Amino acid sequence: MQPKPDYLGPEYGTAFQDSSVAKAYQYRPPFASATFDVLTDLVVDTPRHVLDAGCGTGALARYLVERVDRVDAVDISQEMIGQGKSLPQGQNPRLNWIVGHIEDAPLQPPYALITAGRSLHWMDWYVVLPRFARMLTPNGYLAIVYVKQLPTPWNQELTAIRRRYTTTPDRQSHHQIATDVAERGLFKSAGTARTAPVTLSQTLDDYIESFHSQSSFSRGRMTPENAAAFDQELRALVAPLCTDTVEQQVVTEIVWGKPLQPNF
After folding, report:
1. Among 55, 214, 231, 264, which one has the highest count of C-beta atoms within 10 angstroms of its own C-beta?
2. What separation in angstroms does the CA of 15 have from each of 52, 89, 152, 184?
3. Which residues pair with 253 in a beta bridge?
4. Is the pTM of this model over 0.90?
5. What's the 3-state SS for 240-260?
6. DSSP designation for 46
7. Cβ(137)–Cβ(113) under 8 Å?
């Protein structure tokens, strides 16, 4: 059994239970609207029920619920779900919020689609992927969804700042999570999609705060001095290159396929 990298361990994933992370989550780049067309097309079986695993504030669940019969949205963080309930569609009667670990949360399968938006890397792969395999309908898929920010003019300098202040210095990109689980015999890809780039415009304050929605920059895990210094350096870097707003190009990447039982 090949273990996950240490920087994806549970001690880091618990940062999403920090109230500061939940409050900053609204400033993360959203999923492109075309994402929901791709996901809806993957729902071909009945019942048209979806499981959103590691739902956070419901960035996927709250928009999918308008297109299917029911969404079960599961997250370990009460703070995240509390935020999600206050956002658009958060009180939709077909949206069932569940606080708990996806590894053993009480669920109501079968599901025609399981989504994991920016979340699968934190889960126990050897538990959740076999569990997902048992809960899917015959034509159901697991869709792994990530938002990727395209390089900015300040990208190189930003990388250096992030390295100085991150609370997980060994952290690497997890956008290849589908490859990681496939290499472990836990997933077989059936298709991929990438949305066209979308322009995201934010105030400089909101752009800076978006970093504190990440586990590596949780204000609850950084010292107050480091959090203030990080914000100051980031502001000094970006402010001369922008006017009233910070603009970024973002894309959504989707990989769907079959979760598998491991062969060992």
Report:
1. 55
2. 19, 25, 27, 26
3. 146, 194
4. yes
5. HHCCCCEEEEEEEEEEEEEEC
6. S
7. no
Number of residues that this document lists for the chain = 264
Residues contacting residue 257 through CB under 8 Å, at least 6 positions apart: 141, 142, 178, 182, 187, 188, 189, 190, 191
* pLDDT tens, residue order, the chain (264 aa): 787 777 676 766 677 878 888 899 999 999 999 999 999 999 999 999 999 999 999 999 999 999 999 999 999 999 999 999 999 999 999 999 999 999 999 999 999 999 999 999 999 999 999 999 999 999 999 999 999 999 999 999 999 999 999 998 776 655 689 999 999 999 999 999 999 999 999 999 999 999 999 989 999 999 999 999 999 999 999 999 997 899 999 999 999 999 998 876
- Residue 223 CB-density burial (10 A; 0-12 exposed, 13-18 middle, 19+ buried): exposed
User: What does R_g of the chain's alpha carbons equal in angstroms?
Assistant: 18
CA neighbor of 30 nearest in space, from 4, 56, 5: 56
Type of residue at 90:
G
111-117 vs 70-75, strand pairing mode: unpaired
Contact at 8 Å (CB) between 73 and 101?
Answer: no
Are the beta carbons of 149 and 29 closer than 8 angstroms?
yes
Q: Which two tokens stand for residue 240?
A: 């001369």
Residues 6+ apart with CB under 8 A from 57: 22, 25, 26, 80, 81, 83, 84, 87
Contacts with 125 (C-beta within 8 Å, 6 or more apart), sequence order: 4, 180, 181, 184, 186
Question: Furthest-apart CA pair in the chain: how many Å?
Answer: 56
- Helix (H) and strand (E) counts in the chain: 10, 8
